[in-house]
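[step 3/7] fold_predict: job queued, chain A
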Amino acid sequence: MTEKEKMLASKPYRAFDEQLTKERQWAKEMVFDYNSLRPSEVDKRNRILKELFGETGDNFFIEPPFRCDYGYNIEIGKNFYSNYNCIILDCAKVTIGDDVLVGPNVSIFTAGHPVHPELRAQEYEYAFPITIGSHVWIGGGTIINPGITIGDNVVIGAGSVVTKDIPSNIIAVGNPCRILRKITEADKNKYFKDLAME
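[step 4/7] structure written:
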C-alpha cells in the first residue's frame, strides 16, 4: 500500500511521503489564495473551495482565515457556515451534513500521533473519519477529535473537547464533552436559556 492508501484506510502512515507532501502543498497554495482574497470576492473564494473540497452543497460560506491539510477529504452539505479560524485536518474523510453552523476557532482533527515516543520519532501518524450530521451548531473554540460521529440536531457548547460520539437531538458541553440534556419541543419557545421568543 502507498502511504496515501494507508492514511485513507486509517492505518499507520508516514505523512512526509512525497505524494502526500505534494498534495498538502497544493492545498496550502489553494488555502493561501482563499485567505488572501478581499472580503468582497466571495465568488472567487467559493470557486476555490469547490475545487479544493471533495464535495460542496448549495449555499456555503467560510469566513477567512481557514486551514486544512488536503481538502479533498472534506464534504459539506447545503447551507454550511463556518466563522473565522476554522481548521480541518482532513487526513481522513470529514463529512458534514446540511444546515450546519460552526463558531469561530473550531478545530476538527481526524489526525493523531501514536502515544509511544519511538513511534512518533519514526514519523508515524494515523487518521480516523469524522461525521457531523445535519442541523448541528458547533460553538466557538470547540475541538473535535479523530473518529467522532455527531448526530443530527446537536448543539455543542463553546469550548468543548469532543472525545466521544454524540447522539442526535442533544446539547453537549465541556471538556471532555458530555451530554447535558435532550433538545425538546419546549426549546422552540426560547432563544437563550430562559429568554422567550416573541
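[step 5/7] annotate
The chain has a mean pLDDT of 97.
The helical segments are 3-8, 18-36, 42-52, 117-121.
exit 0
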